[in-house]
Amino acid sequence: MITVLVQFKLPQAVTLEQARAMSLASAPQYREIPGLLRKYYILSEDRTAAGGMYLWKSRADAERLYDDAWKKFVREKYGVDPSLTYFDCPVVVDNISQQIITEE
Known about the structure:
The chain has one domain: Alpha-Beta Plaits, CATH 3.30.70.100. It is globular, with a radius of gyration of 14 Å. The strands form two sheets. It has a four-stranded antiparallel β-sheet with strand order 2-3-1-4. The protein starts with a strand and ends with a strand. The longest helix has 11 residues, at about 15-25. By secondary structure, the chain is an alpha+beta fold. It has helices at about 15-25, 60-65, 70-80; strands spanning about 1-10, 35-45, 50-55, 85-90, 90-95, 100.
């Protein structure tokens, strides 16, 4: 598994309520993406940066989403290119489902 941190600056600060509304509007499109296990929408404390933490089955799954069309969408919507940072994710502790998840 891998985790990808996606970040981008917002054109202007938003409220938590505005960020929630924007996130809920786009959330359904992430329900059926192959290989995507979880997505967390994130907003910086100063409300000027946003993005997501994505948990993927593999890097190849992630790279299928983060293609040129996706980057262009972010650039056109927010006026900036997103930054992507990839992390290996050997273990996930999920206290909601009471599971410890690993690839093995």
